[in-house]
Amino acid sequence: MSQLTKAEEQIMRKLWSLKKATVREVLSELPEPKPAYNTVSTIIRILEKKGIVDHEGSGKTFTYFPLLKQEDYKKQSLKELITGYFDGSFSKMASFFAKEEDLSTHEIDELMKLLNEKKSE
Length: 121
What we know:
63% of the residues lie in helices and 10% in strands. With 121 residues, it is mainly alpha-helical. The chain has 2 domains: 6-66, Winged helix-like DNA-binding domain superfamily/Winged helix DNA-binding domain (Arc Repressor Mutant, subunit A, Orthogonal Bundle), CATH 1.10.10.10; 70-120, no CATH class. Strands 1-2 form a two-stranded antiparallel ribbon.
């Protein structure tokens, strides 16, 4: 699976939240300034050619739905981020975000709790 462009990802986020939608329904969910109808339609057709989206037909209207699960895309994107920017090291990524994001005490406690749970598995 290839990485989605920003425009493709924006459309996919709407399809993931809507589950099934027409181009008009996706367009209505996008923030201002909204792209043209044809732009959204073209992006959805590209996603369909990539095998990420499919459709059901009803007359002239198509209802689109995601074939790619959001969780699967998140996992793949995170792996690519860690590999590309942190030499494949999760600890390097965590260290970077801990330094750069000015984590609150509560966030650090939550992270420690998750790490301890993972350690005890």
